[in-house]
Each structure stands twice: as structure tokens, then as C-alpha cells.
Amino acid sequence: MRTHAFEFGTGVTLLEVPSPRSTIGHRLACARLAEMAGSGTGGKRGNATAYWIDARNAAAPQLLSECAASPHHLEPLQIARAFTAYQHHSLVREVTRHVDASTELLVAPNVASLYHDADLSEWEREDLLAASLETLAELGRVLECPVLVTSAVDEHADTIAAYAATRIECVRTRDGIRLEAAHSDGKSDATGGAGEGLTIDETAGYWHEEYWQTTIPYWVECYGAVGEVRSVVDAHDRGLLEVTP
């Protein structure tokens, strides 16, 4: 998957995925890990770290291996799994004791999912989720690193978005899945959406599960556009076109 059009900044990025089993977040996270591994443009230092707070077994080893361009890219990633909302909240708090200046990525897939479960009293759900989200947002601010969280169709989507610098929607089209930045009112926008954390061009390409199909705007972004298109006659008069009978 090519992710040249997606430049993660600091703070929480909410990726609204089609389902809890979606791998779009995995691939964006692995692209970030690849950047961290790159020389010159990679990590803040050679020992850059990343943390993944898992829910619903999203961090399946085989899946991450398939999404990563190289097994080496996964080496900085430390994964902790939660199976209840209490465990998830505890892991979020525990991460605060392990991160440092070398931390360049935090990932929390299905970030609100466990807070729906019956083992959590309804009166606790909003407060506990808000505390977890506030902690993640503060980590992103203090560490100046991206915090990627995902959510499927979720009644807590607006709650999560309140803590997000950027909100991204995955839109299914006949050409694949398009990623669009969205404002807090749900309107899509191609130039930044809810915040400045992620630079995204909604026409840059489409994800087809196995490959990333780029478009003309993507190449314009990479190399620029021709300032003026001259007519064939003008080109001929300037000696730029040879016409043979």
C-alpha cells in the first residue's frame, strides 16, 4: 500500500473504518513504522519506539506481518492486549509510564469497542472512555507524535472525535475505499477536516485490499502541474512538433 498522500502529524487521528476487522488502520500504522525505520527521514533516534493498545484481537501477528513491508519494521512495536474496558483503561494509563522522547507512534484500534460490553456499568462507560481518550490525546500532545485510533460504526464516534485532531472516514466506492477528512459535523473535506494532524487528498487514490491505485492528482502533488497547455498549432509554429505527410 502506498501512503505518500497521508502525512501523520501530532495528536489523535480517528480513522472510521468499515468494520472492526478492517486492516486499513494496520496498513497506515505499518507505513508509519516503515518511515521510522528509514534512514535520514525516520525516527527521532535509532531506538524509536511504538505502542499498540489492542482491543478485539486486532493485532493478530500474521495480519501485521502481511501489512508490514518488512519484518524489521515491526521491531519497535510493543503490543499490549485488553479484553475488558477496565483492562483497556489500565493499559492506556500503563503506557504513560513507558513512553518517552523516542516514542513516535501510538495505536489504539477499536478504541471504544470494549466500553460497550456488559461487564461495565452503564453509568461508568462515558467517564471511563473519556478518561482513556483524554490520556491518549495528552500523550500525543506532549510527545508530539501521532496517535492513531480506529472505530467502526459506533455510538461513541462523536465522543472519540471530540479528542481527535483529525477525523478520517473510509468511504466505499466502486473504485475501492477512499479516505476522506471530515469535519465534526460529518461533512467531508479534502483539505484537512477536523484538524491539522493529517494531510490528505481524497482524490489521491483508492485502496483495493491488495494494492493502492493512484490518480492524476496524486502525481500532480508529487511533481506539480503544467502551468499552461499550448495548442498543437502553437507547438508546430515553435518548432516543437514535426508533422509528416
Give a topology summary.
Layout lengths: L6 E2 L2 E6 L7 H14 L11 E7 L5 H7 L9 E6 L2 H11 L7 E6 L13 H22 L2 E6 L5 H5 L4 E8 L2 E7 L5 E2 L8 E2 L5 E3 L4 E3 L1 H8 L8 H6 L8
3D architecture notes:
- InterPro entries: P-loop_NTPase.
- This is RecA-superfamily ATPase, KaiC/GvpD/RAD55 family.
- The chain is an alpha/beta fold and 245 residues long.
- The protein is 30% helix and 24% strand.
- It has helices at residues 24-37, 61-67, 85-95, 122-143, 157-161, 216-223, 232-237; strands at 7-8, 11-16, 49-55, 77-82, 103-108, 146-151, 166-173, 176-182, 188-189, 198-199, 205-207, 212-214.
- It has an 8-stranded mixed sheet, sandwiched between helices. The protein has a two-stranded antiparallel sheet with strand order 1-10.
- A hairpin with a 5-residue loop joins strand 8 and strand 9.
- 35% of the residues are buried.
Features of this protein?
245 residues; 24% strand; 7 helices; alpha/beta; disordered N terminus; 8-stranded mixed β-sheet; Rossmann fold; two-stranded antiparallel ribbon
Short description:
This protein has 245 residues and is an alpha/beta fold. The protein contains 7 helices and 12 strands.
Q: β content, as a range?
A: 15-25%
Distance between the termini: 47 Å
Main-sheet strand order equals 4-3-5-6-2-7-8-9
CATH superfamily: P-loop containing nucleotide triphosphate hydrolases
Structural class determined from secondary elements = alpha/beta
Stated plainly, the CATH topology is called: Rossmann fold
How many H/I helices? 7
